[in-house]
Fold this protein.
Amino acid sequence: MIQKAFIFILLILIYFIWYLIENKDGKYLLFSFVITCIPFQMSIPVLEPLYATGSATGTFTSKIFLTIPLMVSAFLLLTRKNKSVLNYSQNERWIYVILFLTLISLFNPHNFAIWSTIAFVIILLSYILFFKLMYNYLEPTEIIKVVFSSFMFLCALQFILALLYPLMGVSVVTTVFQAGGGEWATREGTRAGAIGVFVTPANLGLFTTIASAFFFATYLAGYKKLLSLGLLIINAVTIVLTFSRTSYITLVFVLFLMFFIYKNSKKPLFSFKSIIFGIAPALLVVYWLVFYSPLSGIFLKTDADEMYQARMDHWLIGLEIFKMSPVVGIGINTHVEFVNRIVSLYREIHNQFLTTNPIHNTHIIILAETGILGFILWIFFILSSIVQAKKNLSVNNNVIFSLTMIGLLITYVIYGFTDWAPLSPSIFPIFLLFAFFSNKYSLRL
């Protein structure tokens, strides 16, 4: 807690100096500050409900927090004139869908951790309220500048920390930002990997891949091209130093598919050409990466078989949960608690890891916690968002956020098959950020 307070004060000092030097608008800096704070997971605990799993009931904690975006939003609502943030917008239907699923979760008889669902709702609404205020205050070009500057700062910091550990062996940096980081940075002694300001290499790899999608979008759109290219390069180095297999594969597909869709935005998305020129080159690069590159040992000579089996076991647990409540699931942010309450699910499982950690598959988590209803809506959101983003690209509208949204969704699809990091509190707000602004500035064609 003391470390978090120190980091928080240090960030405030950095932004205060930035304000004095550049005399930036206060709202601009507030927006940048909140985005920069996301990976650090800084908030004030208010309530900690007691469950069988402690507070680790799902991908989010069950603790109730007073979040930074909520505090900043309250300040803005009290001190400035604001346009209504409650007005319905067609471009915000996806938010109401999530709230609808959350409402179902709260009244779901299979939900053994109501407070965990409430904790998720608080985080969701905190960020959506803040983004709506920023949408009212700032122009689209200012929003892009804010995201660019925040991601630039975060990526530079991750790069420096990745050089310190594992490259230079300065292990102390793994425990500065997150409790338990030292253990996850070594993967319990199996292999070292960079974690940056996150708690695991997976989270760092996922964040850096998303940031790379954003910088690739700015590069293709001609926005600060040289700087964007430089940030892409240091992100690639950071991802290599995470030694996260999924991150390597995901980054290849994200860059290839973003480029292909950008160059063919006025042509059909699904065609023989898209397979030959979009997917096939990415598959060839991945094949080289896995079997012939200097990094192939990470895929072939480490703990890959063990991790594959653990994930398979986890997926089977998720499918068993789904069978118990196939239509609406067992409640958002509750599946770990559910497993520990329903003994029959893990009677034959002797690996404690499987019953104390979220299922390592984002898509199965969504299926288990929201049922077939939520899963169908998730698939529809992915496909409709990519199609809509492509339409915007075809008329040169909202290019940066549309391209980033495509890269983000590709990342979530691929990364989601092997990990729950896409639904973690240090990553999910970033998903909300791009989902919100890509939709708000989207033309309905």
About this structure: The mean pLDDT is 88. The first strand starts at residue 43 and ends at 47. The radius of gyration is 21 Å. Residues 362-394 form the longest helix (33 residues).
